[in-house]
Amino acid sequence: MASKSEVESPDFSQPWKLSDVVLVVEEERFHVHRAMLAFWSPVFEKMFTSEFLEKDRKDVPRPAKKASEIREILLLIYPSVTEREITEENCYFLLKLAHEYQMAAIVTRCEDYMANKVKVKAKESALADLVFAQTYKLEKLKLASITEAYCLSLDEFINDERFDQIQPNNLQEILEGIIKRLQRELDGAQRQSQERQQKIDRMRGSIQLVKTTCLSEVGRIAEALVNHASSKQNYSYIGCNDTASYLAALKRDTQPHYCQKGYCKVCYGLSRVSTYLSSIKQQLELCHPS
Q1: Rg (CA), the chain
Q2: Whose CB among 190, 197, 245, 259 lies 3.0–4.6 Å from 267's, allowing a Cys bridge?
Q3: Angle, CA 217 vertex, CA 211 and CA 223 arms, to 5°
Q4: Averaged over 103-107, what is the pLDDT?
């Protein structure tokens, strides 16, 4: 089994383990192995096996490249104790390099990372990722970005600075997705409105029932009190047949009388009770469920 020292991340700054080629980038020298580069990249394989200038050269310049980025991709292809991670900071330039050198495995790793991150990023960034996916033909990232773009409003989508860079078929798919989402939201809002109206109607019915019941009870209380007071001399409830007439009769009951039942010795006039019950009746009648 290889020891930790044998598989830890290489330094590349000096010849090591039979390294046989040097990548020269921004005045930095990376000592690497032709076989390792060829194993990962058909571009390097062709470079080292065909009639190219680099075939037999010890130093292979990589113009227009950044040394920090070349180091990062080398650390991905060389084995180490801990696998090099794809991150938000390196995924874009790694994918560009991997795409250029046809390192399919690294392209896939970077694309998988970006597609998984689309959902947790700001929804506006989905269009930037979509344009990137179009450029490098990244189907998985494209689908993830389009799906996330469905969450944009029409104004956000149309006014985005990358709107003109979106390919027509992707443009149509996003617009259709936004419209379908808006339709679902509208349908949901209509269902909620209907359910709310049904609940309000049920509440109105319940309130009306309580109102009717309470008004009926006020009438029965007034009738019972009139019957109780009917034993008074010169007291008349003849002609009382509804709540209003019973309350009117009680209004005229201003004199106390002796009660023959129970423990009361004197029953005072009930005109004040009539006032209270009339007030309750009026408030109930003014109550309109809304």
Answers
A1: 44
A2: 259
A3: 140
A4: 96
Task: Indicate the Cα dihedral angle 224, 225, 226, 227, nearest 10°.
Answer: 50
pLDDT, position 199: 92
The burial of 33, by beta-carbon neighbours within 10 Å (0-12 exposed, 13-18 middle, 19 or more buried), is given as middle
Question: Contact, 138 vs 146, CB < 8 A?
Answer: no
CA distances for 174 relative to 39, 130, 135, 206, 217, angstroms = 39, 11, 18, 48, 64
Q: For residues 224-236, b (16+ Cβ closer than 10 Å) or e, as one string? A: ebbebbeebeeee
Q: Where are the beta strands (DSSP E) in the chain?
A: 21-25, 28-32, 59-61, 257-258, 266-267
Residue 281 pLDDT class (50, 70, 90 cuts):
confident
Q: Is the dihedral of CA 248, 254, 258, 264 positive or negative?
A: positive
Q: Residue 3's pLDDT band (boundaries 50, 70, 90)?
A: very low
Sheet holding 28-32, edge to edge: 28-32, 21-25, 59-61
